[in-house]
């Protein structure tokens, strides 16, 4: 009875979480004469998106999905963005563990700001996955404080283990990152503002034809996106969302029937 009650409680909580889940959107301001538009993904889109950007949707004024392509621009340094990264430092025996919140950004590298003179080996990982190892140093005017992340996937957190041996732990003042944001390209059919929505883990990456020929689209207008806004997934103009209210009502009815059955059975057994 207790196990069944716990299972019912778990299913109830799960249903409530699903029912009141949220996602995000930004308004895209349409400008220019070309039918094709483009804009760069912003830091808050990377941080709040799910499934490695697979949940991104472009929505027109009528609430319909608009096909889009995401271009990766790793080698275009002119579009480089420098960002301050939050981090936490822990000591583990003779190692300094640096935990960096990388926010799923497509980081090319991270740069440490350290005052000391030193030379230390490091290992780079995320959870149990090992990615690279190398050496960081700062001696006189010579320094090598950049850790390359070119072959590291987008991660929520990056862990760097700095091996101190018998030396004092490094005093890390700041951690910055460098990345070139991905670019979204899509076609408009009206002048009204569009939206980019994201943050719904129930959505999978769509497959659009534009991905196959985006390289040949030369005539584009650069457009801007607005501030991050949060919206209930039950709102209109959000595509392919499930109506959880119907499931919720069915679930509550089923739970009520099950509980009544157990209560009746318990009463009958007590009378015996």
From TrEMBL:
Keywords: Membrane, Transmembrane, Transmembrane helix. The keyword Transmembrane applies. The chain crosses the membrane at residues 244-264. This is Uncharacterized protein. It comes from Leptotrichia alba. The lineage of its organism: Bacteria, Fusobacteriati, Fusobacteriota, Fusobacteriia, Fusobacteriales.
């Amino acid at each position: 009875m207790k196990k069944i009650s716990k299972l019912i409680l778990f299913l109830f909580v799960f249903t409530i979480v699903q029912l009141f889940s949220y996602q995000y959107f930004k308004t895209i301001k349409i400008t220019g004469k070309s039918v094709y538009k483009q804009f760069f993904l912003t830091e808050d889109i990377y941080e709040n998106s799910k499934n490695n950007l697979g949940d991104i949707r472009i929505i027109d004024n009528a609430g319909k999905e608009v096909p889009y392509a995401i271009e990766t621009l790793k080698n275009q340094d002119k579009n480089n963005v420098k960002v301050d990264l939050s981090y936490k430092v822990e000591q583990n025996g003779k190692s300094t563990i640096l935990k960096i919140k990388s926010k799923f950004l497509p980081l090319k590298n991270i740069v440490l700001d350290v005052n000391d003179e030193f030379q230390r080996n490091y290992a780079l990982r995320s959870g149990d996955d090992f990615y690279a190892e190398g050496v960081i140093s700062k001696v006189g005017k010579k320094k090598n404080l950049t850790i390359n992340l070119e072959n590291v996937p987008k991660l929520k957190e990056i862990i760097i283990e700095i091996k101190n041996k018998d030396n004092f732990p490094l005093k890390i003042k700041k951690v910055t990152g460098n990345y070139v944001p991905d670019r979204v390209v899509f076609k408009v059919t009206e002048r009204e503002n569009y939206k980019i929505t994201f943050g719904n883990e129930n959505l999978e990456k769509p497959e659009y034809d534009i991905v196959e020929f985006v390289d040949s689209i030369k005539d584009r207008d650069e457009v801007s996106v607005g501030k991050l806004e949060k919206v209930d997934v039950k709102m209109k103009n959000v595509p392919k969302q499930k109506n959880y209210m119907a499931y919720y009502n069915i679930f509550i009815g089923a739970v009520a029937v099950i509980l009544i059955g157990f209560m009746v059975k318990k009463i009958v057994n007590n009378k015996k």
